[in-house]
Amino acid sequence: MRTSYHEELDSILDRLVHMAELVEVAIREGAESLLTADLTRAESVISNDVQLDKMHEEMEYKCLSLLALQAPVAGELRIIVSAIRVVFELARMGDLAVHVAKIARLRYPNQAVPARFEDSFREMAAIAIEIVRLARVSLQERDAKGAEQLVAIDERMDLLRREQFTMLLGDNSDISIEGAVDVALLGRYFERFADHAVAVGRRVIYIITGQVPEGEDWPNA
Amino acid sequence: MRTSYHEELDSILDRLVHMAELVEVAIREGAESLLTADLTRAESVISNDVQLDKMHEEMEYKCLSLLALQAPVAGELRIIVSAIRVVFELARMGDLAVHVAKIARLRYPNQAVPARFEDSFREMAAIAIEIVRLARVSLQERDAKGAEQLVAIDERMDLLRREQFTMLLGDNSDISIEGAVDVALLGRYFERFADHAVAVGRRVIYIITGQVPEGEDWPNA
């Protein structure tokens, strides 16, 4: 009984890592579909999200069942309680990738992102992919130091977002209403990718140390 | 020992209800500051959010401690695990109210909301306040039926959001870039209030029934 219980705990961590890999793909493909106006890619991000939602439901059910049936303590309890939150954060990132892909689809065959915002969104996409990758690696290697790095990357994302607002509302802005709405919402979605990754990092640190990092440096994303 | 433990469980539920009341105030005041360009009100929503963030941290710490120290089972375990999620959802709603108030402050002394969108946002605000109130009452009275009503209210919010896009991008739209950006983001924030309330409803149902409602009708907000 105990063996199979420990196998279940290991399998939860493995599945979190696998889910994070799928989320990384969703973000990369969503961003690519946006920046290359690739309808097929956009459709595939949208339809693949079913799998992430399904994993979310299954993992949540499994974790709640383990809590109910095994009455885990200490480190095991931390893993299960954290897993419930991490699958939620990952599933939200998948939803955001769908939002990005839907804007790409809505504007197809045009580019949703106005030309002068392309570099900015390309950088945001790179940051989002990097922060999710680091969150996954910190989980995989149970590396609290790695998880701490996420906050600095999140700050780069916030800076890019502020720059986008300056560009949007600057005097020489010749953007359309549609373009402005897309930029505002897309900027929000990319910013949220990073926030959710930071939240995953918080849980990784909690799994390892038993302490939830708090305060200014650790926004409750 | 058991008595004080049960007192702690009751106090968790009481504090969730109290936190939901504060969130309702934050949403109402945030919306009022927005719709009346009231700087004092906006500032107060922004500064009061510290309290919600503090409650979030304290409650999360308390719940994780109870899990670690008491090894609760069955209904008690469900309350604690759900409370961790509910405080998170409530704190996010508080953050969104701050986002709304910050847009009001940014545009002061002007109205952030363009005149022709005022009715729409007034209705969104009323829906947001109502859905949070119902989520709180369902929690207070442990009323699963009440929690189920949240989904229908959420749909009204989504409909309003779609109408806003139609108005924004319609042929006779004479809105400024700034106005369009504000409407797009504010619409998103109000939509998210409802999503988070629905997520609270899911947890109320889980506390009562032991089942997490799933599927199309219960988006994993």
UniProtKB/TrEMBL annotation, chains A, B:
Localization, UniProt: Cytoplasm
InterPro entries membership: PhoU, PhoU-like_sf, PhoU_dom
GO cellular component terms, A-Z: cytoplasm
SUPFAM superfamilies assigned: PhoU-like (SSF109755)
Secretion signal, residue range per the UniProt entry: none
Record keywords: Cytoplasm, Phosphate transport, Transport
GO biological process, one term: phosphate ion transport
One Pfam family it belongs to: PhoU
Family as reported in the entry's similarity comment: Belongs to the PhoU family.
Purpose of the protein: Plays a role in the regulation of phosphate uptake.
Entry protein name: Phosphate-specific transport system accessory protein PhoU
Species per Swiss-Prot/TrEMBL record: Tessaracoccus lapidicaptus
